[in-house]
Write a structure and sequence with these properties.
The chain is an all-beta fold and about 90 residues long. Helices cover about 0% and strands about 40% of the residues. The protein contains no helices and eight strands. The strands form two sheets. The chain has a four-stranded mixed β-sheet with strand order 2-1-4-6, with no helix packed on it. It starts with 12 loop residues before the first strand and ends with a strand. It holds the Pfam family Copper-bind. This is Blue (type 1) copper domain-containing protein.
């Protein structure tokens, strides 16, 4: 399950979900650039902005989700709240 936007040929920044962590936990993007979350963990996870302005679907092992964040935000996994990350948008 991967959401993509064919209008942009830019490569997305990859955030791997593995061992109950987002890796890297903090990324910096320019406005319009994309991030792809790829779950390589044995359990399902999601990535949800702390104020719920965006959220991925639940991602099972091997699934990914891509989107272009519009502003700097902190996020976490709603299933495993100790998993946290940050996207900085310039």
């Amino acid at each position: 399950m991967e959401a993509t936007d064919d209008a942009s040929s830019k490569t997305a920044t990859i955030v791997t979900i593995e061992n109950m962590k987002f890796n890297p936990a903090t990324i910096t993007l320019n406005k319009g650039e994309k991030v792809t979350f790829i779950n390589k963990d044995i359990v399902a996870h999601n990535a949800t902005e702390t104020k719920n302005s965006w959220a991925s679907p639940m991602l099972a092992n091997g699934q990914s989700w891509t989107f272009a964040p519009e502003k700097t935000s902190n996020y976490y996994c709603t299933v495993h709240v100790v998993m946290k990350g940050k996207i900085i948008v310039k």
